Amino acid sequence: MNAPRTEGWEGRLSAAPPPARRLGGLRVWQNNQAWLTPLLLLVLPVGLFGLLIITPIVQSIWISFYDWDGTGPATWVGLSNYAELFSDPQFYTSLKNNVIWLVLFLLAPVFGLALALFLNQALPEMRLVKSIFFIPLVLAHVIIGVVFTWFYDPTFGLLAILFNWLGLEPLAILSDEHFVTFGIIAAALWSQIAFCLVLFLAGLSQLDQELIAAGRMDGAAGWSLLRHIVLPQLRSVSFVASIITVIMSLRNFDMIAVMTQGGPYGSSTVLAYQMYDATIFSYRAGYGAAIATVLFAIMSVYIAWFLWHTLRREARGG
């Protein structure tokens, strides 16, 4: 009769895996840490970007090929939504207004830089002046829209009071199809200029003062100092301000919704508001998705061109 088998500490030691095998995973991590660490850190943000940005874009493009009211069954219609869109006069009115928004909104970085240069002075009273210029930045666009609606009112608005003081007939800007878009853009620019102002003030605080002092010693002053020494150091800030301004000009919606709802007679509508109107009020989610896809394509093409032009200019050294 065989005796029961027992294992002492010698058996357990011999059955344990060798140290090299147990530490194999750790050694792999140490040997590949240079690329594994950034890969693991990028998994979450890239996953969120794909879930929250890429997926809705793909879904919106896919929906644009359907006739769908947003709740019921969807019917495949192919390119019919796009054919209807490109034959709709309202689309070209909205597109024209988007171009006007884009051109005039590009004044925001220019005025923001000018104000930043003016406010970037070591004077005690400048703190109060800066806080006044920062007010539009902390106000919601809805509030700004309401305030400017009162400002433009032809009966009791400040603009009407000014016209009466000058002996002129008050102009109903928001009711005139020729001036309404420019009135809304002026209200939106008030906020966007403040945003660009903050960006350029931050950029001016990071300037290389030794380089500026060297330029002054070489005789640079005024415009030559600004052009050859200050502006090159603000190139990255100018790039960010321009890109964000372009995006805001093409996707602006809340100002129009508050001030005119696209009126009068659709003359102030832009593509973003036309998409909202078609989807929410006309129950045409597929048609609204087609408008959104066209707007996304316009933004992508313009931003890609802007990036290419900027990178090409930097590669040539200026």
TrEMBL record:
Keywords: Cell membrane, Membrane, Sugar transport, Transmembrane, Transmembrane helix, Transport. It is a multi-pass membrane protein. It is found in: Cell membrane. InterPro entries: MetI-like, MetI-like_sf, UgpAE/MalFG_permease. SUPFAM superfamilies: MetI-like. It holds the Pfam family BPD_transp_1. Residues 94-308 form the ABC transmembrane type-1 domain. This is Multiple sugar transport system permease protein. It comes from Azospirillum rugosum.
